[in-house]
Amino acid sequence: MIGQKIKDNLEKKPNSREMEKFKKDFPQFFSKEGAFKLNIFKDFLSEEEIDISKEGYELKFLGKSYAKYLSSLESETYISPDVEHKSKEENKNSENLYIVGDNIDALKHLLNSYAGKIKCIYIDPPYNTGSDGFIYPDNFQFSVEELSLKIGITEEEAERILDLAGKSTHSAWLTFMYPRLVLARDLLSDDGAIFISIDDNEQANLKLICDEIFGEENFIVDLKWANKEGGGSSDSKLFRVKDEHILVYGKLINNFEIRGLPPSNIERYKESDEYEHTRGKYYLQKLGMGSIQYSESMDYPITMEDGTILYPADNNSGRRAIWRWSKEKYQWGIENDYIVSKQDKEGNWVLYTKQYLNADNNGNLIERTQIPMGIISQFSSTQGSKELSKLGLDGYFSYPKPTFLIKYLINRITGNEFTCLDFFSGSATTAHAVMELNAEDNGKRKYIMVQLPEKIEENKPAYKAGYRTIDEIGRARIEKAAQKIKEETGANMDYGYKLYYLETPEEKTLIDLENFEPEIKFLTKDMIKIFDNEYSSGKGSILTTWLNEDGYGLTKSSSPYILEHYSADLIEKSLYIIDEGLEDEDVMTLIKRIENEELDITRVVVYVHSLRFNVLHELRKNLKVLRNNKNVSLIERF
């Protein structure tokens, strides 16, 4: 499960992640030994007449090569489901996720099943203000010499990088953020976007690394959020600051569509008719408009039902008037019920057109909206604190983001059936916002929250209330908000979430896994129970990690599948063998069922620590010589 990743990580370099993606998409530029065919690549560039520039600019900072290296490494953690939490009725079939652990590990796990599937990411990372508690968290496992050799830098630079631990410098913050944003980009769908809250301390640096990671061309906007009420704060000695930034980037900006805001004059759409369910409500606008530039084709007589003949009325300036619609369009309006005629107090006829909210004047259904402003001024930080107070969580967070703000941002994403990710979950405002939006528009948005189990100081109100880590408060907020929404709206929606913990095996276990060779099985300890913890059995953790690694995600479950005596786990085309106890007769039963098409699978995944070598040998041998042209892969993991 982790052993192979440990071995793979020994070979990683700062650009290994990019090279793996490059090899996958452009195998023609590599030999079968993996060597890069530089001349063929140069020929390709020249044929496409690509200008190779030797000049340009980029953001350079201490730790950048190490940050890239971190993004290339595989996570050496495993995913442990909280079985008791999952068994609760509201959580059994939930498609929402809450992951407790370091977010860089969570992002790496999520990439296995959710790459390219997240349409909306919102994060509120540490601002590096000097007072927000941010310090670079990495506990370096390298000596100066090892790090220098590993990422190809001088020992002097390696020493300076190692010195970042526990610091809150710009370089420390950028080294922290860079790999997380690299991974986040790969999670975004092609039509997705990321929203990042930040203040002036790191806004300029964040903009530069986002330009590099997401591409300068995919920058959408730097929103200004007027977050403070009253006179603002005295963060600057010369100006009173009342705003923060929200940087917005798309995965591919040409694929991104913005959802506009309701019209500012939406209150005028008051009237309704039999077409309301499709065209929406409407208001009346006069057909005759004396101020329009004169056109002879728009100046024609209209005969009313009592024989009165109407012409567009000239305005007071004497300018010749016209109708707003041509004669042909007027006839279309009559036939499709877009025209209303009324008599005024003097008995004079007045003609109107119906201006529908959800249909234009050509009969096309539309969503009538206006482009959002770059300044958001209707939500304040104070609202976020009040929301927590109403849920009985008063004073647990400083300046939590208001639900209204996150709803506003999520609502700029078109559609209402997609996944939102927040990997700095904090008070879980994003999950709260997703639930409220779903209740309002019958949406099927899902959320994935990730939060480090950061300890709460003993003098804090949350600690005195019984909470010990930040994630506990976030999960309590989700559950309280869900209950409140359910009571107030009764909406038929997903109120639950599945809970997972990222766990790291003991160092001795990692050494055993790294040195293990299935042909020489010498381990005496139970290599399943070593993954037992308070949340789940070792088998549950192994299976959960593998299902996600194989693309099945964290919301699907396998079913038990009985062979002769052994119970394996089946999901779609994959059979998992994890527990000890597989015998030769189970192997033969498996082979027969595959060959006679009783069992339709393409993969058998085994935990080699659980199998006696002779049984593993039989499984290998028989799967290679399946009859009836069957082809089933054997995947061995440790």
UniProtKB/TrEMBL annotation:
It comes from Peptoniphilus faecalis. It comes from the Bacteria. InterPro entries: DNA_methylase_N4/N6 (IPR002941), DNA_methylase_N6_adenine_CS (IPR002052), N4/N6-MTase_EcoPI_Mod-like (IPR002295), SAM-dependent_MTases_sf (IPR029063), T3RM_EcoP15I_C (IPR041405). The keyword Signal does not apply. The keyword Cytoplasm does not apply. SUPFAM superfamilies: S-adenosyl-L-methionine-dependent methyltransferases. This is Site-specific DNA-methyltransferase. Residues 118-452 form the DNA methylase N-4/N-6 domain. GO terms for molecular function: DNA binding; N-methyltransferase activity. One of its GO terms (biological process) is DNA restriction-modification system.
